[in-house]
Specification:
single chain; 296 residues; alpha/beta; Arc Repressor Mutant, subunit A; D-Maltodextrin-Binding Protein, domain 2; five-stranded mixed beta sheet; 10 helices
């Protein structure tokens, strides 16, 4: 039978990213950890980690075991710390990742409210527009654009996110008109190079067909907030989310372009581990965000 120690070491190695890193955290030598991992794989009968001199990655079997062990070990820790703890109490640390724009405008205030209602829980919020590596970075929940490629994760649509091609009146003044998608090639386009974005290949859906336009521009960023500032400052044309620029569209600081064409939605999803028995901290947070996101 696999010992709890060997299983805990396996989880520690995945979280640390390397055997040597896990050794420093656990106070064990790399040789000892390697021996225990080999014994665990032999007992289970499958390879859990692909290891080389430079890199380490989980096998599909390793991913399944890792996510199940997170729940089991979390439950064991809670059981030993307080047998009288109510089942719905959230304890420990909750690591949340969010896109920059939505994180600043809505998620940050909701997390503060959630933290106030859960005094025994520490919540860490990380803002960024890059793809999240749940295992390596140790996140419990992510709020991101689009669904994850990892089929072991659960993704629920949190917000519909309509998008528009837009620009400021200052940029458009004196420049050639934009009547059809191909006209974008004559203009300075601001490019968002982040996970879930369209980058420099913009999809535009007309009444009869969909066009893919390869745009160019001298300004590229991986940060949605920077893109917003650029388009408002008149540096070019951008694809922006309705929730992010609706006030500017209403006041005329920005105008939408290419009437009759639409851009596919870039919907926001709340993503977390695919496991039946979620820790209370994750379960409660997901429920809270789903209930409160439209009120923020």
């Amino acid at each position: 039978m696999n010992s709890i120690t060997d299983l805990s070491i396996f989880v520690g190695v995945v979280k640390a990213g390397t055997i040597s890193g896990a050794g420093r955290r656990l106070g064990l030598s790399p040789a000892s950890i390697s021996k225990r991992l080999a014994r665990l794989e032999e007992e289970i009968g499958v390879r859990l980690l692909n290891r080389s001199s430079r890199a380490m990655s989980l096998t599909e079997e390793g991913k399944i075991l890792y996510h199940k062990l997170l729940v089991i070990l979390d439950d064991l820790e809670e059981a030993t710390s307080s047998v009288s703890r109510a089942g719905d109490n959230a304890k420990g640390t909750l690591k949340v990742a969010s896109t920059v724009g939505l994180g600043k405008s809505r998620i940050a205030s909701l997390i503060a409210e959630f933290s106030r209602n859960n005094p025994e829980l520490v919540v860490q919020l990380y803002l960024g527009d890059k793809q999240i590596d749940f295992i390596r970075e140790g996140f419990d929940v992510a709020i991101a654009i689009g669904q994850p490629s990892d089929s072991t994760m659960i993704a629920k649509r949190l917000l519909k996110n309509r998008c528009f091609v837009c620009a400021s009146p200052e940029y458009l003044e004196g420049r050639s008109p934009i009547r059809k998608p191909s006209d974008l090639k004559k203009h300075e386009c601001l490019i968002l190079d982040s996970y879930g974005s369209f980058r420099d290949l913009w999809p535009l859906c007309g009444p009869n067909h969909r066009e893919m336009v390869r745009v160019t521009g001298s300004l590229i960023t991986d940060n949605s907030e920077t893109l917003r500032n650029w388009v408002l400052s008149g540096y070019g044309i951008a694809i922006k989310s309705e929730w992010d620029v609706k006030n500017e569209l209403r006041t005329g600081k920005l105008v939408t372009l290419l009437e009759g064409y639409t851009v596919p939605n870039m919907d926001f999803y709340i993503i977390y581990g695919s496991r039946k028995n979620l820790p209370a901290k994750t379960r409660n947070f997901v429920k809270f965000i789903e209930e409160r996101i439209h009120q923020a």
